[in-house]
């Protein structure tokens, strides 16, 4: 009995395969292959390096000193605007130039400390070292 059913079973399987292939080509998908993979690669994550604790502490200390120096400059400018006597004005101008030069030198020291906090090929951003470009 199985020999008699073998031929019709093969015929039905062939017809189903042809119909499946026809439907797949009509819909634009390929039924016999797996789904195509995307060719777009995601952007690489920037490499991050942790700066040395001492270098990070130095950067933070310099940032605090700069903030204090800039506040002093602002206070001296405000006091200079309110002065009336020439002697006081001269003294405040001298103190103001000294405070401005101190703030400028601290900013240069901060830039240098940020460069030294990270290895070659990295730059200091926030509190970590990120790979250049």
- What assembly state would you assign to the polypeptide chains in this entry? single chain
**SSE order in H/E notation?**
HEHHEE
Distance between the termini: 75 Å
Indicate the radius of gyration in whole angstroms. Answer: 37 Å
Mean pLDDT: 83
Poorly predicted segments: none
Number of helices: 3
Approximately what portion of the residues adopt beta-strand conformation? 5-15%
The portion of residues assigned to helices is 55-70%
- Shape, per Cα inertia axes: rod-shaped
* Major pleated sheet: 3 strands, antiparallel
Neighbour order of strands in the largest sheet = 1-3-2
Derived structural class: mainly alpha
How many strands appear in the DSSP assignment? Answer: 3
Characterization of this structure:
- The protein is mainly alpha-helical and 133 residues long.
- It has a domain at 53-131.
- The protein is built from three helices and three strands, in the order αβααββ.
- It has a three-stranded antiparallel sheet.
- A hairpin with a 2-residue loop joins strand 2 and strand 3 (128-131).
- Helix 2 (53-82) runs antiparallel to helix 3 (86-117).
- It is rod-shaped and about 120 Å long.
- The N and C termini lie far apart (75 Å).
- The relative contact order is 0.12.
- The mean pLDDT is 83.
């Amino acid at each position: 009995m199985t020999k008699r059913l073998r031929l019709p079973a093969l015929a039905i399987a062939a017809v189903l395969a042809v119909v499946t292939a026809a439907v797949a080509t009509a819909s634009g998908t390929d039924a016999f292959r797996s789904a195509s993979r995307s060719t777009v690669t995601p952007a690489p994550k920037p490499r991050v390096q942790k700066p040395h604790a001492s270098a990070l502490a130095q950067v933070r200390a310099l940032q605090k000193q700069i903030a204090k120096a800039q506040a002093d400059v602002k206070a001296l400018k405000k006091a200079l605007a309110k002065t009336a006597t020439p002697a006081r004005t001269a003294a405040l101008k001298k103190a103001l130039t000294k405070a401005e030069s101190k703030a400028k030198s601290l900013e240069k020291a901060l830039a240098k400390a940020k460069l030294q906090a990270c290895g070659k090929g990295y730059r200091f951003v926030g509190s970590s070292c990120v790979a250049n470009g």
